Amino acid sequence: MRKLLIAANWKMYKTPAESTAFLTSFFPLVKNNTAAEIVLCPAMPCLPAVVDAARGKSVSVGAQNMHWHNEGAYTGETSPTMITAIGATHVLIGHSERRQYFNETDTTVNLKLKAALAHSLVPIVCVGEHLNEREQNLTADVLNLQISVALEGIKPEALGPLVIAYEPVWAIGTGRTATPEIAEDAHKIIRAKIAAIAGSDVADSTRILYGGSVKPDNAGSLCCLDDIDGALVGGASLDPDSFAKIITNATTR
Known about the structure:
- This protein is α/β, with parallel strands linked by helices.
- 43% of the residues lie in helices and 15% in strands.
- The protein has one domain: Aldolase class I (TIM Barrel).
- It has an 8-stranded parallel sheet with strand order 7-6-5-4-3-2-1-8.
């Protein structure tokens, strides 16, 4: 059984003080949770505060991005060694906003994935199509290419920690959500491509999350499907009550 994973992407919101205030309210709401792995991905300046606050709790902490080199003249970047030194255990790679605004490519996703695996970080690799690509029936082509390049040159036995997040770009921050059927179909495409590249054992064990306007009222209908193994939550994860309700609804099967 693939354990559900519910990850919060706080994007460029919350100061360190606001982050710890969130956790003070949030932890009591999920103290009895055992059905899902919970990951919080705050902005980089908040990582130390969130790691400290989460210590001893059943909540993991991840970075929203990283460079693939351990060090160097890359002003404004954060290396995998820095992230692990802070105590974070997960990292988002290739989020659509990174691709759209900061020139993230499938090739840099591949480099970052290799670095994350080399430093024992759990990578959450984001893939997904734009609206015009879906309207042209190119969803499968886009997903297959993104997965192929992301996994290029990585041995199947190294992919145990891999998590994929399917985030249809047309549903991120728009209020539009893929229907459970659309999401399930996309997840099947992704899992089939992983199987073709790395074998059925890797594909069967890889968790594939849905991301795209996930809210308390749709989390249950999405996460009850066989190929959807959790959610990557954006705006609705900024409020502790909302995020806790998503976790509760997603794990009520």
